[in-house]
Structures are given as C-alpha cells and as structure tokens.
Amino acid sequence: MTTPPGDPPASNASLPNAIEPSPTVASPEPSEAPAGDRPDLETQRSASFWKTQRENGLVLAIALALALVIRLFVAEPRYIPSDSMVPTLQVGDRLVVEKISYRLHPPKQGDIVVFDPPTQLQQLGYTTDQAFIKRVIGQPGQTVQVHLGKVWIDGEPLTEPYIAEPPGYEMRSVTVPSGHVFVMGDNRNNSNDSHVWGFLPVENIIGRAIFRFYPIARFGRLETPDFGVPALKTGALNE
Q1: Among 34, 101, 133, 161, which residue's beta carbon has the most beta carbons within 10 A?
Q2: Range of 194's domain?
Q3: Is 233 annotated as catalytic?
C-alpha cells in the first residue's frame, strides 16, 4: 500500500518483534586511573611485607634485650648438675636465681646462693663459668666449727633438718672474715664447700636461689630456715 504523501513513515513500534533503540547514555567516568597511573600491587605487597618484618624484628630485638637485662640484673634460671645439695635440691632441678636482694642487704644465714668459684677453686682447675650452689652457714664475725657430727656457730649447735646426714668429719673453729661467708652443701659428706677450700667472698655471689620450677612435682619456693643463732658479732673482725 502506498503511503499517502506527507504522512510520516510507520514507526518501528508498529512492527512485530521490533526492538527500539536504547536511549543515548553518557559514558560513565572511568572508575580506575589509567593503567600508567595505577600503583603496582606487587610493589605495595612487597613494601607491606618488609614493613611487617621490620616491626617483627624490632619486637624480637626488644624482647631479647629485655631478656638479657633481666638475666644480668634481675633473675636467671639455673640447673643443678650434682648431688651436693641433696636432699634439698636433686640433680636435674631447675631453679630461679634472683639477683636483686643482695644489692640491698648481705646474704643471710640459711640462704641458698649461687656463686662464681673463688680463687681457691680456680687454682684447683675450676673456671669462672662453673657456678657453684651452697647454703650460707656463717656470716662475717661468726665462728664456725664442725664437731661430733654437728655444725657449731659461735659455740651453739645448729639444728639442721634439711641435711642428708650429719657430717662425718671434724673441722676446727674458724672466724669468718669481713666481706666473706662460710658456705656448705646440704649433702655434708659429699660437698666441695668452705670446709674444704675456705671462705667465700661475697662479691663472688651471683644471686639467691628462691624458686624451683622443675620438676613440677617439687614446684615451689625454697624456704630459708631460721637457725636461731645470733646473726652477727660486734667488735673487731678477724681478717
């Protein structure tokens, strides 16, 4: 059929299945910067990784420094290698040795101390890194004697329920000089202590054993016994 002149052509909408063209839409702004301006993801990840590693390294360095300071000046763990302190301490026991109290006061009778070997022991072949552990028995100015299976302080016998057995030797009376202590092992008949090599300089003491943390079955504090004898004598000291 001929379209009358002047009439507009038929719309596509009148044709079956005809699809109307979509209205013109402005192109969206690009969501990302041009490829040349985008940060390199690999570079970002690498920088983040190394930043984390530096932080971890700093934390580790601080932890190690603190551990070193604590070990040098506060406390440290120690291992018992011999039976000289049996029955109080057994071979294999692990202890905490504190280093603060003797900066405030001298060692007390009954304290269990860890110390570097004095000159007398070094002359026998012991090295400075071979620490010993014994109990303080006599303080400066006190007399110490071993007689008839007992230790005598200033003429008074000690009551010592913590020792393995009474000492089977005799030792003449000696006076502890200034700046020294007299130390003995609780296993009196199997201990390389002051009755063998003499007095211990206080300056050689590393610290005081205060706590056993292993084995778990004997976990706990190491108590200092009350000797019940005068702490110090007055007057001149026998140097």
Answers
A1: 133
A2: 77-221
A3: no
